[in-house]
């Protein structure tokens, strides 16, 4: 697999062992419920129902384990037993249970959500077995339901790193955690999500997910847009990292300035899932050690603090309907891995996450108290209200 086109001057192939490593975050399976058994019309015998296919949650399991366990991706439940003179009601077919990791979302081939397997819902039927032969079916057993399912994993991390290729996300992850993502001076270095853990002096830990760089059009699944954007859906904080000098991923798009980069990332997320704009967000303006960086930042700082007031200055094609309000804006030279700089960033991340978690907990307590109050009022009203005879 060539990671960049020869037009950009890179045609280096990834080492085979690197391509094999990493996270499997999606697995496609073909499942079928068992066929129903034949009935016995002479005696009114009913065939056994075909077995169902279920996915069942199992702790300490990853999708790579599921892939290795299954000898075949075409999976079928047992066929229902045929009705006989000695047994007029056929034996039901054996159900097929597929163990999958906890927290997996299951979709069909049309991306329609079938359900999620978690601690509250540990079992989900994904293909129903066929009905056994009876009078209504002419005593013929019916075929089981067939479908293609996709087991989809969304990373569970506190912080999701968002940016275009080569903005410095992997460099940031390596600087604040013990994670060792592949880092190089060309775009698209990260091809699989990476997770690092930030450990504080009081042993508090915050997980950070480094997602492969987006490209323009990621919301319509250009590049591998949906594959990467889905992982920010379960994060608590969106952390944008952008290059002070902007970026140009391909010759199909003009060079984007730093502010245009921010707006484009904002719009890609909005078009993918506007609810994500409700999340707390902060931004790091990276590569401040480069020539002319301070002058550019002094020029864009007033606009960066209130982008919505300056939207008219930009091309309509990159204008989001709703502009993100950042909880904090920091500048950095992530490549230098300056300890003081990293400490400030780590403390800002912790402060924002804790602040929003406290607000969320307070809101939940208020709602709970309101529900309890309403329940008490209804109970008292029923207790003391006049009874109609």
Automatic annotation (TrEMBL):
Pfam families named in the record: GTP1_OBG, MMR_HSR1
The protein, known as: GTP-binding protein 10 like protein
GO CC term, one of those recorded: mitochondrion
CDD domains per UniProt: Obg (cd01898)
Subcellular location field: Nucleus, Nucleolus
UniProt keyword terms in alphabetical order: GTP-binding, Nucleotide-binding, Nucleus, Ribosome biogenesis
InterPro entries linked to this entry: G_OBG, GTP-bd, GTP-bd_Obg/CgtA, GTP1_OBG_dom, GTP1_OBG_dom_sf, OBG_GTPase, P-loop_NTPase
GO molecular function, one term: GTPase activity
Xref: PANTHER family: DEVELOPMENTALLY REGULATED GTP-BINDING PROTEIN-RELATED, GTP-BINDING PROTEIN 10
GO process terms (BP): ribosome biogenesis
Organism of provenance: Habropoda laboriosa
Residue ranges of every copy of the OBG-type G domain listed in the record: 157-352
Organism domain of life: Eukaryota
Family statement drawn from the similarity comment of this UniProt entry: Belongs to the TRAFAC class OBG-HflX-like GTPase superfamily. OBG GTPase family.
Domain Obg positions: 21-156
């Amino acid at each position: 697999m060539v990671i960049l086109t020869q037009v950009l001057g890179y045609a280096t192939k990834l080492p085979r062992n690197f391509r094999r490593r990493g996270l499997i975050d999606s697995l496609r399976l073909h499942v079928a419920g068992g066929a129903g058994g034949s009935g016995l019309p002479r005696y009114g015998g009913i065939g056994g129902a075909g077995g169902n296919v279920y996915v069942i949650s199992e702790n300490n399991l990853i999708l790579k384990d599921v892939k290795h366990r299954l000898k075949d991706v075409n999976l079928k439940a047992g066929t229902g037993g045929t009705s006989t003179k000695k047994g007029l009601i056929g034996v039901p077919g054996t159900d097929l249970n597929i163990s999958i990791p906890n927290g997996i979302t299951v979709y069909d081939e049309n991306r329609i959500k079938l359900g999620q397997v978690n601690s509250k819902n540990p079992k989900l039927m994904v293909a129903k077995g066929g009905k056994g032969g009876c009078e209504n079916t002419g005593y013929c057993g019916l075929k089981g339901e067939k479908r293609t399912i996709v087991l989809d994993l969304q990373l569970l991390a506190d912080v999701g790193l968002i940016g275009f290729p080569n903005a410095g996300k992997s460099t940031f992850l390596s600087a604040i955690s013990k994670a060792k993502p592949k880092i190089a001076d060309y775009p698209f270095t990260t091809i699989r999500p990476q997770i690092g853990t930030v450990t504080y002096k009081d042993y508090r830990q915050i997980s950070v997910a480094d997602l492969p760089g987006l490209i323009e059009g990621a919301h319509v699944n250009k590049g591998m847009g949906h594959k990467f954007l889905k992982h920010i859906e379960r994060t608590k904080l969106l952390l944008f990292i952008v290059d002070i000098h902007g970026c140009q991923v391909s010759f199909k798009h003009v060079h984007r300035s730093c502010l245009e980069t921010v707006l484009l990332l904002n719009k890609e997320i909005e078009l993918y899932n506007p609810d994500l704009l409700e999340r707390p967000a902060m931004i790091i303006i990276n590569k401040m050690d480069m020539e002319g960086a301070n002058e550019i930042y002094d020029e864009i700082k007033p606009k960066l603090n209130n982008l919505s007031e300056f939207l008219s200055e930009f091309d309509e094609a990159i204008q989001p309907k709703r502009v993100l309000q950042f909880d904090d804006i920091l500048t950095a030279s992530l490549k230098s891995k300056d300890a003081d700089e990293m400490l400030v960033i780590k403390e800002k991340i912790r402060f924002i996450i804790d602040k929003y978690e406290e607000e969320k907990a307070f809101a939940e307590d208020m709602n709970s108290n309101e529900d309890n109050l309403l329940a008490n009022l209804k109970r008292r009203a029923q207790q003391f209200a006049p009874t109609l005879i």
